[in-house]
Amino acid sequence: MRYFIFFAYDGGRYSGWQRQPNSLTVQEVMENSISTILRCETVLTGAGRTDAGVHALDMAAHFDVCEAIDEEQMTRRMNSLLPPDIAVNRITRVRDDAHARFDALWRRYEYRIATRKSPFAVGRAARVFYPLDVEAMNRCSAKLIGRRDFTSFSKVHTDVNNFVCEIRTAEWQTRDNELVFTIEANRFLRGMVRAIVGTLVEIGAGRRKEADFETVIEAHDRCRAGEAAEACGLYFVKAEYNLDKF
Fold first, then answer.
1. pLDDT at residue 124, as a whole number
2. Closest by alpha carbon to 78, among 69, 70, 88, 68?
3. Are strands 234-241 and 55-64 parallel, antiparallel or unpaired?
4. What pLDDT digit, counting tens, does each position of 140-162 carry?
5. What is the spatial distance between Cα 238 and Cα 59, in angstroms, rounded to a whole number?
């Protein structure tokens, strides 16, 4: 029997989602918790992987069990074992062939920039206290929409076969004292959102010409894009699935 688990975490003290030798990861902590409760080794397969310091609001993963479980009771028990910076939102039964990674139709990320000093933004948002031309950043963001090769915004050493992604949303909005970039795509490359944000911030700050953004995309060269934005401002928001799998 297969279940999906949806959870949130503050990635500040973790070396990302995926298990790594000699590093504390979200996957390791969650698998240890669920294995303790079920009294057998249990593996979680996530909807994606986040880098060190990146957060999640509603990450998804799946796991298999031999017998049916009480979803609400399992949620409570896991939350009692997990550290304060990881929380299970809900657990739900799905079809046995449902896959948290491969069945995700769209994934959404947010990048948050604090535009004024706040003790509550430390470790949870990048800090940019100088003026940014948000209109120029949004005009460039619109050029991301569609199915394109995004090699220019991908880490160089990666195991993917191609760099083509389809983006359906990419926009900046002001929320109180934060500037928030929302991006939705069918898939994301390693380091993609942070590289895009870093480049757009350079344009907003006037350090890079707006007209150059299309050239950066078409170059298919990571060296042409800007530096990656800080990890602390990035959030995995959610994955969208076909309800037929549930």
1. 95
2. 88
3. parallel
4. 999 999 999 999 999 877 777 89
5. 6
Q: CA 182, 187, 188 angle in degrees (round to 5)?
A: 65
The per-residue pLDDT for 130 is 92
Residue matched to tokens 């080794």? 41
Q: Is the pTM of this model over 0.85?
A: yes
* Selection from 238, 244, 236 nearest residue 10 by Cα: 236
Q: Provide the terminal-to-terminal Cα distance of the chain, rounded to the nearest Å.
A: 12
Report yes or no: 47 and 104 within 8 Å, Cβ to Cβ: yes
Per-residue 3-state assignment (H helix, E strand, C coil) for 46-84: ECCCCCCCCEEEEEEEEEECCCCCCHHHHHHHHHHHCCC
For residue 197, what are its two tokens? 């944000």
Give strand ranges (E) for the chain. 2-9, 45-46, 55-64, 86-94, 104-114, 126-127, 146-149, 164-175, 178-185, 234-241
Q: What is the pLDDT of residues 3-62, one digit of tens each?
A: 999 999 999 999 999 999 989 999 999 999 999 999 999 999 999 989 999 999 999 999
Distance, C-alpha 66 to centroid of its chain: 30
Task: Give the least confident one: 4-8, 116-120, 229-233.
Answer: 116-120
Enumerate the active-site residues.
51
Residue 102 backbone dihedrals phi, psi, to 5 degrees: -75, -20
